[in-house]
Amino acid sequence: MLAGESTLSYRQIHDALGTWPRSFWEFTDKPAERWAWHHAPLVWIPK
After folding, report:
1. Interacting residues of 7 by C-beta distance below 8 A, sequence separation 6+
2. DSSP conformational letter for 5
3. DSSP-based three-state secondary structure for 44
4. pLDDT tens, 1-47?
5. How many CB atoms lie within 10 A of CB 30?
6. What pLDDT is recorded for position 33?
7. At CA 29, angle to CA 17 and CA 40, rounded to 5?
8. Residues 6+ apart with CB under 8 A from 30
9. What's the CA gap between 11 and 40, in Å, rounded?
10. What is the DSSP letter of 43?
């Protein structure tokens, strides 16, 4: 965390795990009300 914001990026996840993270929202419906997805990105990592 840096100044309350995540410093983890899709690139950093890829570099560490060797696979690209995918957005959680590709597989489920977003809630009508915007909430924490900008502050706490939701991703899943394919096997």
Report:
1. 1
2. B
3. strand
4. 456 656 678 888 888 889 998 888 888 777 777 665 566 667 888 88
5. 10
6. 72
7. 45
8. 37
9. 16
10. E
What radius of gyration, in Å, describes the C-alpha atoms of the chain? 12
User: Residue 22 and residue 45: Cα distance in Å, rounded?
Assistant: 6
Tokens of 22: 């995918």
What span, in angstroms and rounded, lies between the C-alpha atoms of 44 and 47?
A: 10
Contact, 42 vs 24, CB < 8 A?
A: yes
Residue holding tokens 């995918």? 22
Q: What's residue 1's pLDDT? A: 45
